[in-house]
Sequence to fold (418 residues):
Amino acid sequence: MGSITIEGGHRLSGETVVQGAKNSVLPVLAATLLCGGACRIRRCPRLSDVDAAADILRYLGCRADWEDGDLLVDSSVLTRCDIPQTLMRRMRSSVIFLGAILARCGWAELSYPGGCELGPRPIDLHLAALRTLGASIEESGGKLYCQGRHLRGGQIVLAIPSVGATENAILAACGAEGVTVITNAAREPEIADLQDFLCACGAEVRGAGGSVITVEGLKPLHGCVHRVIPDRIVTATYLCAAAACGGDILLRGTDYRHLATVTTALQQAGCRIDCGETDIRLRSEGRLQAVTPVRTAPYPGFPTDCQAVLMAALLRSRGTTVFVENIFESRYRHAAEMQRMGADIRVEGRVAVVCGVERLHAADVFAADLRGGAALVIAALQAEGRSAVHQCRHIQRGYADLAGDLAGLGARVRQNTE
Ligand code: EPZ
Fold:
């Protein structure tokens, strides 16, 4: 299971390089199935979710090998077009392979992806998008049976700007004859990164980053070399850690434009933030001010993935901060664990009210999901005494080395492998 031991009360200082983005590399790895050639994915983070995606690619017949921090994928030969439950359940977002397999093979068979710690993870929008392109999809016995030998471009209108559904629609549209227009598309930077990868492979995808994306399908594709964008959520995590502990840190290899809502909140909380072209410096006295209500929203709104880590940073702030979680149904599971450290948080449905306290005390706490687990580490960094965060497998899904990176910034943190 693994745990992280944290001795709280130390300021952070120094610099670290931010990893590549998990939520970009996963759809890019699915997209490698389309090009039928060799791709080099640079700055690919070593995460358990990436390992799961690489194992899916290998199961389908691809080669996937690590070389100097890059992942080399060769999808020249596919031997299967199905993903079994054992592999589907290892990664919550494995459904992003559906559109790519359908576009490459003309059929796909996937076990239904499980729910997750954030609440139900429906895929109705994914399936509706693929059906718009002519796919026939049957759901029975916990499996999805998809046929789509002659996909045709069409008008896809997403009821909500779902990140995964946008990605699946783009990938399937690459295998559809004619033009597909996706309206109300997600605008996350990871979608633009997927577009950049696909265009480097010879695809015709335009408009990513906006709400309308156009794909001209059936272009001849080839392999490419692609460098993954920085992970904006990991960047925000480290900024929140330093904001909470006090100190002066420099994060390199970042893109400040991707997390404006987070840096604005931290500045309102009293931090000084200086942004360079590829780095962000944060200085904090450690005792923050509460901020105006934080409402999570689709990009470019405040990211739901940063709700927990900002909450952790504000646990000892002066004043009260209201959070409204508008994206997922159950994304406050970290609150109860923070209360065990002395935090004053009241949760009512989608609203959490955080009243800052003078001090937090160490405790043994349990991660229940990826970002909530990282938030517990930030809470423990402020607590008096030695805490332990258990069930770190959740954290390892999205952070290549959270403990190591924080220790490199002066935190007394150790990853245990019990
Ligand atoms: C992506 O998940 C991210 N994961 C999540 O990051 C992130 O929290 C989320 O986008 C929102 O930004 C990856 O990119 C791998 P959605 P995704 O489809 O695509 C509902 C992390 O911590 N919905 O945009 O699954 C859904 O229930 C993870 O790195 C439907 O109703 O998110 C949710 O309420 C956690 N039907 C909302 O849309 C559908 O068919 C947004 O979900 C699809 C989604």
